[in-house]
Structures
1.
Amino acid sequence: MKVFLDTAIVDEIREFAATGLVDGVTTNPSLLKRAQAPYGEVLTEICRLVPGPVSAEVLAEDAAGMLGEARELVGIAENIVIKIPMGVEGMRAVRALREEGIETNVTLVFSTNQALLAAKAGARFVSPFIGRLDDAGHAGMDVVAEILEVYANYDFETEVIVASVRHPLHVIEAGLLGADIVTLPTKVLRAMFEHPLTDVGKAKFLEAWRDVPKQ
Ligand code: G3P
């Protein structure tokens, strides 16, 4: 399973990139707003820290506008992937960008049919939003399971990014389903390192070490 970070906070990305655990990064306008720095500089630095795919989202609502934004964004770095919201205009842009050799991540996906369309349009990635589905009273991970099954039935190469992840249990569920990628807020990744018994164990080892003869 590949692990992406779902943040645009450069310091957080730097911290975890140094562990070698980060395979890519996903950003969106809300995450860039939190970063509170010019987005071009932020994306440039993220692409420098993480050599894997870094998703940057377009804002235009029509395919021509999306293509214009996409062509500017890919100028930032070689590993930029264009994040495009699901919709007819979006899928027109995905198709055109694929023909230009530009990779896309179809975002704001909430159903298996939307994911099917994204794959047929030629997206490299599709991002079902699990947490927001859960919030709305649907079982988000059931949608991931369906998408994976449909993709396997037709040998689609589009990779599934489990997005809108809220807690470590989502990561376990994604892993059990064999999802290609999870994109994690740093809070969730940090929580995955933790276990109370690890803390107890560390404290006991330190305590024992005090009584170990040193000479
Ligand atoms: O990757 C998508 C993610 O940023 C959305 O997360 O928590 O706003 O639903 P959330």
2.
Amino acid sequence: MPRHIILLGPPASGKGTQAKRIAKKFGLPTLGTGNLLRQAIEDGTDLGTEASHYINKGLYVPDELIEALVADWTMRHSAGWVFDGFPRTRAQADFMGGDSGITEPDIVIGLEVPVGELERRIDSRRQCRDCDTVTNTFVHSGPSCPEPQCNGVLYARNDDAIDSFRVRYQQYQTLTAPLFELYRNQGKLSLINGAQDPQSVFNDIEAALEKIASDSDRQVS
Ligand code: AMP
């Protein structure tokens, strides 16, 4: 099975939810750069203070900050990972491919969701303060996390306000969408319809991962 997996997609396309599912099923650690940054903000670290200026406006955090964070995390998890939210710019993708020591991805899952559906999701999205589980007010109306054994408080992210979302989506279109082409040219991109329900999206991702695994078995034999 592929062990180095990137999830690429616009805000609210389900990257975090699917990263968790992949991680659980295949025993891989997940790096959610947005979650790490929110944790740094909550902890009041220098990184958090600097990052918050960008995040609150819906802007991407500068590449150098993210790259240092990812290089540090990846050193401790080199055997395999699921990246949720990295890389997000061409510079970050090149950083991986350069002498950062980070393994290149085996597969890049590209989640496609129309913007109208993203706006609908953003409005109702809630996240757990303790375990980062993401849910929405349509499927879960209570104030606390739906995960068994977690009683964390659910909150609406500041940057999920519609104005902030529009800035994030614009950043995504300009800076991240070109990475689809990059990874397509490398033969690593698998496009998935992310507008389906989470289980159907996961089934499609699993099929894509299995296909990559059987293709590489065939190349070996
Ligand atoms: P997310 O939780 O993935 O939606 O990320 C929340 C915010 O964190 C983004 O809107 C960015 O401001 C910042 N962020 C997360 N990952 C990156 C990244 N790879 N590059 C730049 N900014 C990032």
